[in-house]
Amino acid sequence: MITVASAVQAIVKSSPLLEEGMSRGLLNISAVARDIAPKVANYAKKDVSEAATVMALKRLEASLPHHLTKEPLSVPTPDLIIRSSLVELTYRNSAALTRQQQALLSLISNHSEHFLTITTGVFETTIIASSGLEDAIVELLNGSQLIDISRQLSSITVRLTPEMVTSTGSIARILRQLAWENINLVEVVSTRQELTVIVQAKDADKAFTVLHADSNL
């Protein structure tokens, strides 16, 4: 039989934001209990009172590990670079697309002022570029299967310090700040010392402000 405590723990652990909110003492436990009580009852397969859920949440809150709290990383605030007017094109992987990628690299070498990233997955390839390159990219990849296209995007690039690269949780903390502010990430692209988040243009100013204001990144 699943206990109320086990059910509560499973539900909280399944939501990183809920778990962190509890670890930082930011949430009203009674309100959380009212919200998750039906889930607890369903998980435990028995009637569960709100009071029992509150008690289980309070015990869990006291036991959450200290490392979930927001502590400084003791590194400088990273540089931020913002770009606007981007477009995202996703193509189905194929032998033709692989050959055409060389043409894409040649394209950007002739337009160094533009932004271009290419990410190849198992089944598809995503290209994020300055909107001014959209027509040229579509023409170059003529014959490849276009799956989706998204416009009116912006990017924010975080230049990571060497200390951040080797600090556990530093990238998670950057992304978590955006999640707390309900900013949707369209894509995340990274190299060793650069993390680029792609957001809707309407969210760009807010995302930049959130990242710039957080001196504990």
CATH-wise, what's the superfamily of the largest domain? Answer: VC0802-like
Q: Output the strand order for the largest sheet.
A: 2-3-1-4-6-5
- The whole-angstrom Rg is 22 Å
Helix/strand/pairing class, anyone?
alpha+beta
Number of strands: 6
Shape call: elongated
- Please report the first level of CATH classification, the CATH class of the largest domain: Alpha Beta
Largest sheet, in brief, is: 6 strands, antiparallel
Order of helices and strands: HHHHEHEEHEHHEEH
Second rung of CATH, namely the architecture of the largest domain: 2-Layer Sandwich
Q: Count the DSSP helices.
A: 9
CATH fold type of the largest domain: VC0802-like
Spatial separation of the terminal alpha carbons: 43 Å
Number of domain modules: 2
Structure overview:
The radius of gyration is 22 Å and the shape is elongated. The longest helix is centred in the first third of the chain and has 16 residues, at 29-44. It has helices at 4-13, 16-23, 29-44, 50-63, 95-109, 134-140, 162-165, 170-180, 204-213, and strands at residues 79-92, 116-120, 124-130, 146-159, 187-191, 194-200. The chain is 44% helix and 24% strand. Residues 68-76 have low confidence and may be disordered. The chain has 9 helices and 6 strands. The relative contact order is 0.14. Strand 5 (187-191) and strand 6 form a beta hairpin. The protein has 2 domains: 4-67; 79-213, VC0802-like (2-Layer Sandwich), CATH 3.30.2130.10. It has 217 residues and is an alpha+beta fold.
